[in-house]
Automatic annotation (TrEMBL):
Keyword set includes Phosphoprotein: no
Region feature Disordered, mapped onto this chain: 1-24
Compositional bias (Basic and acidic residues): 1-11
Record keywords: Sigma factor, Transcription, Transcription regulation
Classification via InterPro entries: RNA_pol_sigma-70-like (IPR039425), RNA_pol_sigma-70_dom (IPR014284), RNA_pol_sigma70_r2 (IPR007627), RNA_pol_sigma70_r4_t2 (IPR013249), RNA_pol_sigma_r2 (IPR013325), RNA_pol_sigma_r3/r4-like (IPR013324), WH-like_DNA-bd_sf (IPR036388)
Name of the protein this chain belongs to: ECF RNA polymerase sigma factor SigK
SUPFAM superfamilies (UniProt xref): Sigma2 domain of RNA polymerase sigma factors, Sigma3 and sigma4 domains of RNA polymerase sigma factors
Domain named RNA polymerase sigma-70 region: residues: 49-113
Domain RNA polymerase sigma factor 70 region 4 type: 147-199
Length: 207
């Protein structure tokens, strides 16, 4: 078997060969080659391949519409035929029908696998676009929220801004804030409470 898969004969040669050999006789010859292949006769299998290869390739091309893909499937079909030649039963059909059934199944499986891969890639691409869009929207909302907070913070007194910043952005306790600002603890608590109330009003947050 040529690995490059270039075994197509022209239409005239194929037609002449089919005309010269009666179908019943041709089937018997193919069956004898398969029996030879079943016991490891490589010459018999090469003859079987040469006689059937063009039609198998033609079928694969009609299904796959791709030369390289068709060649790969043909190689798979003949590898399987060599491996299971002993399973061929002439009572169930001709050698060529047996072979073409395998080729059709493998070609259709290849199309389905390719389509599944295409669908999966399209789905992943759509999901990635959605994630990117959501991330961009989140960033825009975050930026907008930050601008709103900064604007509202400017409406507070200096002590309120500093107290809230220390308590909520740096995580300090009220007592630590009071010590840093050198202010009485009750005063700091009041300023923070009043400042947060003013921020909620400015931001439109329901209490």
């Amino acid at each position: 078997m040529n690995r490059d898969g270039r075994f197509l004969r022209n239409a005239e040669e194929e037609e002449a060969q089919q005309t010269a050999t009666p179908s019943g006789e041709a089937s018997d010859v193919l069956a004898s080659w398969l029996r030879g292949a079943a016991v490891g006769d490589k010459k018999a299998f090469t003859a079987f391949y040469g006689a059937t290869g063009p039609r198998v390739f033609g079928l694969c091309m009609r299904i796959l519409k791709n030369h390289a893909q068709a060649e790969e499937v043909v190689q798979e079909v003949y590898f399987e035929a060599w491996r299971i030649a002993a399973r061929f039963d002439a009572r169930k059909g001709s050698p060529e029908a047996w072979l073409m059934t395998m080729a059709h199944r493998r070609a259709v499986d290849r199309v389905r696998a390719w389509q599944a891969s295409e669908n999966r890639d399209a789905r992943f691409a759509a999901e990635a676009e959605t994630v990117d869009a959501l991330s961009a929207a989140d960033r825009a909302l975050d930026d907008l929220e930050h601008r709103r907070v900064r604007r509202c913070m400017k409406t507070l007194t200096e002590l309120q801004r500093r107290a809230i910043g220390l308590a909520y952005y740096r995580g300090l306790t009220y007592r630590q804030v009071a010590e840093l600002l050198q202010a009485a603890l009750p005063t700091v608590k009041t300023r923070i409470r009043d400042g947060l109330s003013k921020l909620r009003d400015c931001l439109g947050v329901a209490r």
